[in-house]
Design a protein that fits this description.
The complex is a heterodimer of chains A (114) and B (113). Chain A is an all-beta fold. Chain A has strands at 5-7, 10-13, 19-24, 31-38, 42-50, 53-57, 64-68, 74-78, 87-94, 104-105, 109-113. In chain A, strands 2, 4, 5, 6, 9, 10 and 11 form a seven-stranded mixed beta sheet that branches. Chain A has a four-stranded antiparallel beta sheet with strand order 1-3-8-7, with no helix packed on it. Classes of the chains: A mainly beta (114), B mainly beta (113). The A-B interface holds A 2, 31, 33, 35, 42-45, 48, 50, 55-56, 58, 90, 92, 94, 96, 101-108 and B 32, 34, 36, 42-46, 49, 51, 89, 93, 97-106.
Chain lengths: 114, 113
């Protein structure tokens, strides 16, 4: 168990809908990262937050957004869902700050868009 | 941006043999290189990492080597066991405030009993 929690574990929804994925980082970690894992694209970085502020953006679609709250949990919002959005969505956390790189992954949310 | 290539995509070895997985990266500013093991349907688990000021690091049966000049790094697993069967991912990241990981495409390792 990495100490990172994600809910829900599974999500099945229809095209055009909107969902919210939730992540709680390890105790003491200030950085949260979101990654998407699909069969054809592998593991891809979406977005990073550090202590409530957006720090970096990767291959994140405009239909997707995220935020980190004062208690450091993070939510990833996916809207106008398409079949191609079906994937495993992982959250990872790290201490952040100087010299701290290790990222620990949560169990993931499997999203199926039908 | 950073690009990480990983080889081979699949690797089968006999139990007790060694396995080697290789990765190359493109951005010479990358300075942190972790390896993750992912079992089917599970989360990626950090198994070992290396920083650019180190050439080699070992942890029991696992070792990682880094060649900064050639921009490649490798994972070595000795005395493989069936429970080592999984997908292994290499990754690279930069220093600074944005430390997102750029992953390789993964290697499916199968250890045959």
């Amino acid at each position: 168990d990495s100490g990172v929690t994600q809910t829900p574990k599974h999500l099945i929804t229809a095209t055009g809908q909107r969902v919210t994925l939730r992540c709680s980082p390890r105790s003491g970690d200030l950085s949260v990262y979101w990654y998407q894992q699909s069969l054809d694209q592998g593991l891809q970085f979406l977005i990073q937050y550090y202590n409530g502020e957006e720090r970096a953006k990767g291959n994140i679609l405009e239909r997707f957004s995220a935020q980190q709250f004062p208690d450091l949990h993070s939510e990833l919002n996916l809207s106008s869902l398409e079949l191609g959005d079906s994937a495993l969505y992982f959250c990872a956390s790290s201490v952040g700050g100087q010299g701290h790189h290790e990222q620990y992954f949560g169990p993931g949310t499997r999203l199926t868009v039908t | 941006g950073e690009n990480v290539e990983q080889h081979p995509s699949t690797l089968s070895v006999q139990e007790g043999d060694s396995a080697v997985i290789k990765c190359t990266y493109s951005d010479s500013a990358s300075n942190y290189f972790p390896w993750y093991k992912q079992e089917l349907g599970k989360r990626p688990q950090l198994i070992i990492d290396i920083r650019s000021n180190v050439g080699e690091k070992k942890d029991q049966r696992i070792a990682v080597t880094l060649n900064k000049t050639a921009k490649h790094f490798s994972l070595h697993i000795t005395e493989t066991q069936p429970e080592d069967s999984a997908v292994y991912f290499c990754a690279a990241s930069l220093s600074g405030s944005a430390r997102q990981l750029t992953f390789g495409s993964g290697t499916q390792l199968t250890v045959l009993p």
